[in-house]
């Protein structure tokens, strides 16, 4: 990088004052300052874009690794569930156990049983009026604390508290 010290900056300022002149020097200094600011913003934008692209690449790699992990877990769950289903079928096979003279109830007693049927209970009304608004704070507390419980417009409030004639 360029090594610029205070003495070199003073020398550059003196030469600029002689060459440009004292009338035009402030305008030139402002222009140079704005150009340097734009250049710094451009460099910072480029750095931010590079950082974003690097983070995006890292996120893509992480996404791919997570997808492969999910696929592996999915495969193991699928194989475990198929093994479980086989074991379940083997354990719940009534006919083979009872035909061979096993202990228990004959399989013919379960012939009318449907494992997919479910009994749904009848609907019971909870006995609440959902249109009635229920507040968490009791009315007696609101009355004691002076909290308004009813909404009134400004004109209605003025009319309510207007002195009687």
Automatic annotation (TrEMBL):
Regarding the membrane, this protein is recorded as: Single-pass membrane protein
The record's section on InterPro entries has: TatA/B/E (IPR003369), TatB (IPR018448)
Main location as per UniProt: membrane
Q: Which UniProt keywords apply?
A: Cell inner membrane, Cell membrane, Membrane, Protein transport, Translocation, Transmembrane, Transmembrane helix, Transport
A Pfam family (short name) is TatA_B_E
Assembly, per entry: The Tat system comprises two distinct complexes: a TatABC complex, containing multiple copies of TatA, TatB and TatC subunits, and a separate TatA complex, containing only TatA subunits. Substrates initially bind to the TatABC complex, which probably triggers association of the separate TatA complex to form the active translocon.
By sequence similarity, the record places it as follows: Belongs to the TatB family.
Q: Name the job this protein performs.
A: Part of the twin-arginine translocation (Tat) system that transports large folded proteins containing a characteristic twin-arginine motif in their signal peptide across membranes. Together with TatC, TatB is part of a receptor directly interacting with Tat signal peptides. TatB may form an oligomeric binding site that transiently accommodates folded Tat precursor proteins before their translocation.
* Protein name according to UniProt: Sec-independent protein translocase protein TatB
The major lineage groups are: Bacteria, Pseudomonadati, Pseudomonadota, Betaproteobacteria, Burkholderiales
